[in-house]
Amino acid sequence: MSIQKRRLEKGWTQEQLADHAGLSVRTIQRIESGNPATLESLKCLAAVFETSVTRLTQEPDPMSNLTHEPSQKDARERDAIQYVQNLKGFHMHWLSYVLIMPGLYVLNIMTNPDRLWVITVALGWGCGVLLHGLTIFGFFKFFGGDWEQRQFKKRMDELNRR
């Protein structure tokens, strides 16, 4: 993560970056020295640098050795950030369902009370929310990491045979 590089490109001191991001100077110092940043700190920095958290965390760290392999800790942190982003997407999905469906029900009753088309919408969208939740919380693992690895290995074996 090149926080220091981005900061210097803007001509900011650590204090100025801390003010813009709403973080403490000590937090900026820790991050620039290679300590892991919290998700909240990453969100603040991403907003200041007008980028996404994913892009910010995927940039190579200029302080690290070029031959540095990502550690298990780095991989776990990336997985955790990805999980939190997926979880946020799920919560936005069910929340929009809960907020929009009553409006659709009222619209249905006002426009065509003899035919409740809103039930079809509620069931279809509800199944989508359910599958999304089952996938996020690991109950529906059909297309999970193990499946991806098997498919990758299968494809690589096919390419190697050619």
Brief descriptors of the model:
flat; 8 helices; 162 residues; mainly alpha; 434 Repressor (Amino-terminal Domain)
SSE order and pairing:
Blueprint: H1 3-9, H2 14-21, H3 25-32, H4 39-48, H5 53-58, H6 72-111, H7 118-136, H8 145-161
Helix pairs in contact: 2-3, 6-7
Q: Tell me the number of helical segments per DSSP (H or I, 4 or more residues long).
A: 8
Structural class: mainly alpha
Helix fraction, binned, reads over 70%
* Rg from Cα: 23 Å
- From the N-terminal CA to the C-terminal CA, the straight-line distance is 39 Å
Unreliable stretches (pLDDT < 50, length at least 5) are 62-68
Number of strands: 0
- Largest beta-sheet details: none
CA-based shape: flat
Strand content: under 5%
**Arithmetic mean of pLDDT:** 85
Secondary-structure element string:
HHHHHHHH
Number of domains: 2
